[in-house]
């Protein structure tokens, strides 16, 4: 069963009777006609199929919902400002923090370069842990574990719309900076937890209503998720750097726990240690 939309300001004011869907469809359709673009030509420059554009434009009358990828593609193709097309959600909007200073950015970049040198050792560690685990879990697959780690490391999905990748990256950074888990965001926005995972990965094309629910939960203007201007791109970079720094801080205790676990495994399986324990007893 689909999750019922949460009663946010956006849902209460903008999406009652599909008003926003009708409004956005009408505005973009009229703009297309005013600048002399045919549906076929708009399809060519936007990458949105003719069928999808016709469906989108029919929303003027029937109010049927359409996706973020569709509206983002059409707005960019017609060189419109998303901030002017998409109204605010009606909830609280919080300004972004000041950009990181040049010295902090330099430190972050130098530190992350150092982290790259540890990747081969971490993959070797996965293989070694798999070998240990096979003693009681013979089905553990080292190759699969390494492949999963490699795929997670390569975070850019294939066969995904650029606008959806941008949406997902901005969404994830804002969530992390709020110190929220995906479950926290799902609960605050009234969006299914599974959808949060795939939206952040750039692998789902959510509805415009879902975008508004997420934007309101994160106290950001909904247009930020699909803005394509240089200012928004720079804000995205800064947010991602801040989010990376927060993630690093959260990983410190987990790495410490891992080191303690590795020492436990080594000590309890070492013949010398076992022999010493037996002799002591």
TrEMBL record:
<protein>
    <recommendedName>
        <fullName>HTH cro/C1-type domain-containing protein</fullName>
    </recommendedName>
</protein>
<dbReference type="InterPro" id="IPR010982">
    <property type="entry name" value="Lambda_DNA-bd_dom_sf"/>
</dbReference>
<feature type="domain" description="HTH cro/C1-type">
    <location>
        <begin position="171"/>
        <end position="225"/>
    </location>
</feature>
<dbReference type="InterPro" id="IPR001387">
    <property type="entry name" value="Cro/C1-type_HTH"/>
</dbReference>
<dbReference type="Pfam" id="PF01381">
    <property type="entry name" value="HTH_3"/>
</dbReference>
<dbReference type="GO" id="GO:0005829">
    <property type="term" value="C:cytosol"/>
</dbReference>
<keyword id="KW-0238">DNA-binding</keyword>
<dbReference type="InterPro" id="IPR050807">
    <property type="entry name" value="TransReg_Diox_bact_type"/>
</dbReference>
<dbReference type="GO" id="GO:0003700">
    <property type="term" value="F:DNA-binding transcription factor activity"/>
</dbReference>
<dbReference type="GO" id="GO:0003677">
    <property type="term" value="F:DNA binding"/>
</dbReference>
């Amino acid at each position: 069963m689909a999750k019922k939309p949460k009663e946010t300001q956006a849902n209460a004011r903008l999406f009652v009777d599909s008003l926003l869907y009708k409004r956005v469809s009408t505005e973009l359709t009229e703009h297309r006609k005013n600048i002399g673009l045919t549906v076929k030509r708009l399809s060519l420059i936007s990458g949105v199929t003719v069928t999808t554009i016709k469906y989108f434009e029919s929303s003027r009358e029937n109010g049927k919902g359409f996706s973020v990828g569709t509206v983002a593609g059409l707005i960019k193709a017609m060189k419109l400002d998303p901030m002017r097309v998409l109204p605010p959600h009606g909830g609280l909007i919080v300004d972004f923090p000041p950009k990181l200073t040049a010295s902090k950015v330099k430190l972050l970049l130098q530190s992350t370069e150092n982290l790259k040198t540890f990747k081969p050792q971490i993959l070797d560690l996965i293989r070694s842990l798999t070998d240990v685990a096979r003693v009681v879990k013979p089905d553990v697959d080292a190759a699969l574990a390494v492949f999963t780690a490699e795929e997670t490391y390569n975070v850019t999905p294939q066969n995904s719309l650029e606008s959806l990748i941008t949406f997902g990256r901005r969404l994830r950074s804002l969530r992390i900076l709020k110190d929220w888990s995906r479950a926290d965001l799902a609960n605050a926005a009234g969006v299914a937890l599974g959808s949060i995972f795939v939206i952040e990965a750039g692998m789902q094309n959510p509805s415009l209503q879902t975008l508004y629910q997420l934007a309101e939960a994160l106290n950001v203007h909904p247009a930020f998720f699909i803005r394509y201007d240089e200012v928004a791109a720079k804000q995205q970079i800064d947010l991602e750097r801040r989010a990376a720094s927060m993630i690093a801080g959260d990983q410190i205790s987990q790495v410490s726990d891992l080191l303690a676990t590795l020492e436990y495994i080594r000590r309890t399986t070492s013949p010398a240690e076992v022999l010493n324990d037996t002799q002591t007893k």
